[in-house]
Structures are given as C-alpha cells and as structure tokens.
C-alpha cells in the first residue's frame, strides 16, 4: 500500500523557532537511538515513523552509530524514506551526528575534520539522502582544536551536504566558543542537543543562558529519562523494555526502590493533571518555551501516541512545579 500522509498532520503539533534562526521544529521530535537497529523488525519501525509524521512530528534525529549494529538505524530510516516518505522530503527535518566510535583506527571517532566529513558521507549513503538538515558534532573532543571541528561543520554546510550545524553534549563555555567560531565562518549554530529531564537538570546551570545569548535553539534528549519517567517500570521491569535488555545506559539495578518511590509520587501528580507520567515529563521539559523541542524514543506506536499527546497541556501552576521539584530534584 502506498503511504499517504494524514491531511490532519499539522493541526495539533506546535512548531517552535530554533533560537533566532529561521527553522522551526516540532515540540516533539522522534529519535532513533534505540529500537531502530537491525535487532527490530522494519515494519514496527516504519509504523512508528509514519505515525509520528501523521501526528506532526516532522523531525527525525539520528547519528552515525545508532543501531545495533552501528549504522543500522540510518539504513532502516533510509528504507522508510525511500519507500514511504520520498514525496515528503521537503516537509521533513533529518539530523545526524558524528563524534562517537564508528570505525577502527585513528579517524573513526572524536572531532577531526577527517572523521567528521567522512562520517557525514557515510551517513548520507546509508540513508540514501542527498543532504541532512542538521549535522551535529556529537560530543566535544578535548584533543582537537574547536576551530577544526567547527570548520568541518561549516564545510559540510557549504558543500550542501547539511543545511545547518549543531553541537551536542558541549558545556556552556564550549558552546559559547563554538558559536563564536561558527558565526565568524558564516554558518550560525542552529541548535544544541543536551540531555534534560525532571531528573537531570544540568542545562539550567548556564547552558540555556548561553543559548539565549548566542541565539541557538535546544533539543532535549532522553526527556523521559530513558523510560523511567513513564509508567513503564511502575510494576517491575517488563520483558522487552530497555532496562531488561543489554543497554548499559539503563539497567534493572539502576531502578531502585528510591527511584520508584519518586516515580510513583510523580505519577500521582500527573494523574491529577489528567496526563500520563510520560506526558507530564515531556510538558515539563517544554514548559516556558526555553527548550525548542524534546526528542523522544518509542518502541511502539501506542507509546508514541501517548507521548505526542503531551502537547495538549504544556502549562504548570507554581504549586505543581514545586511539588514536582520536591519529588524529582535529585541534586
Ligand atoms: N546527543 C546525544 O548524545 C543523545 C544521547 C541519547 C539520546 N539522544 C537522542 O534522544 C532520543 C531519545 O532518547 P531516549 O530514547 O533515551 O529518550 P526517552 O524518550 O527518555 O526514552 C525513550 C524510552 O522510554 C519509553 N517510553 C517512551 N514513551 C513512552 C510512553 N509514552 N509510555 C511508556 N514508556 C515510554 C520507551 O522504553 P522501551 O524501549 O523500554 O519501551 C522508550 O524507548 C534518541 O533516540 C536520540 O535521538 C541523543
């Protein structure tokens, strides 16, 4: 069956400007870090991606190493693009990144010009795309001059292989310097991709201020704390969940009674608001418009639908915010 996008797709999703740049992103974006490798069926992947697009999620976030195996999420996304979304390319923002280990030897990770430009060529080949919308440096490299890494992003944009440049996991000071270098090169920093959730608030200690200052947007990753800030683990660790798998990033041992006590208390706040916990966690990240978009993961269409419905209520009163702080602030 030929896929035809839902005519209603732009009716409910808010789109927010990336800092002082022209590009607007959906309040919720879909990330393909987990659940889109060759370890999952292509049909469920394609169902999630197409349902997301039907719900106004115009932005898909990838990286060279997403899988497993590394590279396979880009290959699978490329298959869905080629089969179903080719006609909608101009309605879609695709991002990819380079920075983590991708191939052996001295040129397969970090931030050299050699690595970044070769990696982008490989990503385009895997996805079958002529260009990505956003190319990110995935993590700061302590041993490569920032001028070299930012110069490579600028080259990618000048070559037409990326439309915009971004950075991820950079500290406030690294971000300020990177933005200045990019500005001087004539390729403004579009966006920063940091981790941010009710449980992880480091961006509030300076990064969001720097982004305001330099005019870049922000897209918060792991806003559900990889599933902790949902109902996923309320009654134990279910089969097939991230914590039940081999991911080193979320383990069953990490889900302690103390964590669950907090999650249950937050769940009660969400219930009073008439939201699922996932919806409240996403609304919280998006409150006040300082964050441009939240990039979510999903392993099923119902999860995606539940999360996207967060846009129905992004407002909090002061009492709710204080109560959430009481349960979620871990510092
Ligand atoms: N730049 C970086 O360094 C970096 C790092 C990490 C992530 N990211 C980006 O951020 C994206 C999102 O990261 P993430 O997957 O960790 O984000 P997340 O949204 O915090 O967690 C996603 C997981 O939460 C569970 N979930 C999602 N919606 C749910 C719902 N409505 N109800 C119950 N459970 C739900 C699912 O777990 P199950 O799989 O267990 O079902 C899902 O895989 C990535 O795909 C990637 O694009 C970037």
UniProtKB/TrEMBL annotation:
The keyword NADP is assigned to this record: yes
Thylakoid in keyword set: no
Listed GO MF terms: oxidoreductase activity
GO terms (BP aspect): methylglyoxal catabolic process
InterPro entries (UniProt xref): K_chnl_volt-dep_bsu_KCNAB-rel, NAD(P)_OxRdtase_dom_sf, NADP_OxRdtase_dom
Domain NADP-dependent oxidoreductase: 28-326
Keyword annotations of the record: NADP, Oxidoreductase
NCBIfam families linked to this entry: PRK09912.1
PANTHER family: HYPERKINETIC, ISOFORM M, L-GLYCERALDEHYDE 3-PHOSPHATE REDUCTASE
Similarity annotation: Belongs to the shaker potassium channel beta subunit family.
Protein name: L-glyceraldehyde 3-phosphate reductase
Lineage, uppermost ranks: Bacteria, Bacillati, Actinomycetota, Actinomycetes, Streptosporangiales
């Amino acid at each position: 069956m030929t896929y035809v996008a839902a005519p209603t797709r732009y009716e409910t999703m808010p789109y927010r400007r990336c800092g002082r740049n022209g590009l607007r992103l959906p309040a919720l974006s879909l990330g393909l870090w987990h659940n889109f490798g060759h370890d999952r069926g292509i049909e469920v992947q394609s169902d999630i991606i197409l349902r997301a697009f039907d719900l106004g999620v115009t932005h898909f976030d990838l990286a060279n190493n997403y899988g497993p195996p590394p590279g396979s999420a880009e290959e699978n996304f490329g298959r869905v693009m080629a089969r179903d979304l080719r006609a909608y390319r101009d309605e879609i923002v695709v991002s990819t990144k380079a920075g983590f280990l991708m191939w052996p030897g001295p040129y397969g990770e970090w931030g050299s010009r050699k690595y970044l430009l070769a990696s982008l060529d490989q990503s385009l080949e895997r996805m079958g795309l002529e260009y990505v919308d956003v190319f990110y440096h995935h993590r700061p490299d302590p041993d490569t001059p920032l001028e070299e890494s930012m110069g490579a992003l600028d080259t990618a944009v000048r070559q037409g292989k990326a439309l915009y440049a971004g950075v991820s996991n950079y500290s406030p000071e690294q971000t300020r310097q990177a933005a200045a270098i990019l500005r001087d090169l004539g390729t403004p920093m579009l966006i920063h991709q940091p981790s941010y959730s009710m449980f992880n608030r480091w961006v509030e200690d300076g990064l969001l201020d720097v982004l305001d200052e330099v005019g870049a947007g922000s897209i918060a990753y792991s806003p559900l704390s990889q599933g902790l800030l949902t109902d996923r683990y309320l009654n134990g660790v279910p089969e097939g969940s991230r914590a039940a798998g081999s991911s080193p990033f979320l383990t069953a041992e990490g889900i302690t009674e103390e964590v669950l006590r907090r999650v249950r208390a937050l769940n009660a706040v969400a219930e009073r608001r008439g939201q699922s916990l996932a919806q409240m966690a996403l609304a919280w990240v998006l409150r006040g418009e300082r964050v441009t978009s939240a990039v979510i993961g999903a392993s099923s269409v119902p999860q995606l639908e539940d999360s996207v419905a967060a846009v129905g209520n992004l407002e909090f009163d002061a009492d709710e915010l204080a109560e959430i702080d009481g349960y979620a602030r871990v510092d």
